[in-house]
Design goal:
The protein has a domain of 59 residues: Beta Barrel (OB fold (Dihydrolipoamide Acetyltransferase, E2P)), CATH 2.40.50. The chain has 85 residues and is mainly β. The longest helix is centred in the N-terminal third of the chain and has 10 residues. The chain contains 1 helix and 4 strands, in the order E-H-E-E-E. It is flat, with a radius of gyration of 16 Å.
Amino acid sequence: DQSGQKQERTHWFSCVAWKGLAETIERYLSKGSQVGISGSLQQRTWQNEAGDTRSTVEIVVRNLTMLDGKRRESVPPVEDDDIPF
């Protein structure tokens, strides 16, 4: 900041996970959990209630590593058959 103090930054990204990986995320992660992820970017487009076209880019998570806690755990990768495209 302006006084030279270190400031912690939080970054939010839209992520999508499917099947077993989604269940693991639901069970073990909560808001504020630190994770490392890898996957692919996917753009999604839709029309809102006013008829305007909206668009977003999401990360389709294939691998996730939990970075919180005393030990780091890795979640098994999702098989390509689980990805919906």
